[in-house]
Amino acid sequence: MALVLLSEPDGSVRRFLTGRLEREGFEVALAADATSPVLDVAARDPDVLIVALEQGSDLEPLLRVRQRSDVPTIALLAADLDLSEQVVLDGGADDCLRKPLSPGELAARVRAVLRRTGTRRPATRLEFPGLEIDMAGRLATVDGDVVDLPQREFDLLVFLASSPGQVFTRQQVLERVWKSSDAWQGATTVTEHVYRLRRRLGPGHGPWIQTVRSIGYRFTPS
Amino acid sequence: MALVLLSEPDGSVRRFLTGRLEREGFEVALAADATSPVLDVAARDPDVLIVALEQGSDLEPLLRVRQRSDVPTIALLAADLDLSEQVVLDGGADDCLRKPLSPGELAARVRAVLRRTGTRRPATRLEFPGLEIDMAGRLATVDGDVVDLPQREFDLLVFLASSPGQVFTRQQVLERVWKSSDAWQGATTVTEHVYRLRRRLGPGHGPWIQTVRSIGYRFTPS
DNA sequence: TGCGATGCTCAACGACGCGTCAACGGCGAG
DNA sequence: CTCGCCGTTGACGCGTCGTTGAGCATCGCA
Predict the structure, then answer these.
(1) Interfacial residues of B (vs A; Cβ cutoff 8 Å)
(2) pLDDT tens for residues B60-93?
(3) A169-183, B100-114, B167-181: which has the minimum mean pLDDT?
(4) Do A50 and A76 contact (CB within 8 A), yes or no?
(5) B113 contacts in chain A (CB < 8 Å)
(6) What is the rounded distance in angstroms from the CA atom of residue A101 to the CA atom of residue A78?
(7) Which nucleotides on strand C sit less than 7 A from a protein beta carbon?
């Protein structure tokens, strides 16, 4: 179940929201320091952060969290807070509610945020005309035929196919697929793997992986 | 530039929102049938859908959209709509606002949703009537036909198209595209590349690159 | 109208990058 | 223990791109 980190200084509101969220099936953790939840985010790694913005506070806690992680964040705006919803949202919040709160709506907004970020994280399947990639099963199917790829080639395909149309240099590929920050690996390694990957995918309906000369490679759906 | 599909039956509200959203930098498309935007979603493939729920309507349009695509959706709730925010959100909406609307907040919520879902459309994109330049994909499309350009020609095009109407001398082009501080390169090299670039772009709707005699070159949108 | 300068077009050459093949080492399976 | 697959690297050939120079067309000016 999803973990919600709640940063709310007012004790009664905190208990009120905690009870409701737990009854809706969330696991709730409380931020130790309500004014600066950034440390708690790092420590507990929640799925969503709810942070209350009090009268007089600024966007600083929000910005701090945004800088150091990309935990989806819902802001609770005090009734007399002089920041507008627009400002808070543009400050990095994924959603915000003005107090007084409807706890049911808050829970629904948590679910809505989780639906987006949660279904994105296990982007477990990529589909293109003539090519499907099952990241959970680590296998690809070309025109219905299953081809199982070695790890490196599969990772390479997933990386390229995750951003269709994007051109990546060999260095970028090395950093993100090989995870070798300093290119101890030769860049020609990438060339070779692309070669093998292309051969294994076969000359099916399109050279999905195109080379951009003196730059790198690009995946295109068709 | 993100594409927003707006489904709002009331004409005045529609104009009001369209104007504001366009002023905020969004491209706005209007749903042909305000009660059932599902067909428009399939046809136009927007980055975000804004759908108005009127008094008496149910969640049906929302559910239909959710079933057939995963376009992020923001619902606008009529003031007298008897559905709660909670119900609408749990019905699949990513966000919702109760009328009367704050157009600035709506725009901010669109940005917030796009921030989460829309890493797919790179901002590195130049668009002109009949000519689009995808800097991330390193390819240009002329009247819908993709032309992939060699390294130098693409860089040259991007450089010129980044400052439409500006005239650049060949020296300036050499310094900024070729990165050769002291022009070891001959200036005629630029001439040649402009020639090839023009030829590759074809005689499409306009000589985008014009020569300014005894000065240099200039890019104009049309 | 003629002359000079500037830019366009074409051809050719050199260099670089990529595809391809081959070989080697490591690791796990049989 | 041995065999085979996978990951990695080096070498080589070919295609493409970048660059330059020369000839021709065009423009501006007298």
Answers:
(1) 70, 72, 84-87, 89-90, 93-95, 102, 104-105, 107-109, 111-113, 115-117, 120, 122, 134, 136-138, 148, 150-151
(2) 777 777 777 778 999 999 999 989 999 999 998 9
(3) A169-183
(4) yes
(5) 116
(6) 10
(7) 5-11, 16-22
Name the protein residue, with chain letter, whose CA is nearest the C1' of C6: B214
Could you tell me where the beta strands, DSSP code E, fall in chain B?
3-7, 27-30, 48-53, 73-77, 95-98, 125-128, 131-134, 139-142, 145-147, 167-169, 209-212, 216-219
A133-142: long-range contacts, CB 8 A cutoff, minimum separation 24: A133/A157, A133/A158, A133/A161, A140/A201, A142/A201, A142/A202, A142/A204
| Sign, CA torsion A70/A75/A81/A85 | positive
pLDDT tens per residue across span B197-220:
999 998 766 789 999 999 999 999
Contacts (Cβ under 8 Å, ≥6 apart) of A6: A14, A17, A18, A21, A28, A29, A30, A31, A50
pLDDT in tens, A99-111: 899 999 999 999 9
Chain A residue with CA closest to B107: the answer is A86
The rounded distance, in Å, linking the Cα atoms of B153 and B21 is: 35
- pLDDT tens for B96-150 read 999 999 999 999 999 999 888 765 554 578 889 889 999 989 999 999 899 999 9
Residue at A184: amino acid letter: W
